[in-house]
Amino acid sequence: MAHHDVSDPASWDPELDAVKAAPRHHKVIFENDNLRVLEVTLEPNDEEPVHHHRWPSVFVLDQIKPPVTDIAPDGERLPPHRDIIKALEAWNGQGCLVVNMSPQPPGRVLNESDTTAHGIRIEMKNMG
User: Fold this and answer.
1) Fewer CB within 10 Å: C terminus or N terminus of the chain?
2) Mean pLDDT to the nearest integer, 22-32
């Protein structure tokens, strides 16, 4: 199975950038040289197209409910090891879920809950 150089997000395919590859789920609400702020929406039983997030970010989710599943580009269901999935499992559902996210290599997320996942993702471009 071919892997990207995960250690170098700058080398990741720009065509797989979240906004380009999954525009229905990622709406740019603000962008400058330092930040890109995305509104992220994932309806119940919806699965995003394969995409990546090359910059570290802070993800503020005002609505999300498990189960939410990470899926590799090849379709393999991944164990719940990623920052956001671990944070979601530990969350008590009060207020907003705030997660510090590392750059995320290509993959997709499936919302298996009955609730629309929704949040704001603040990507820090010059932290990479």
Assistant:
1) N
2) 98
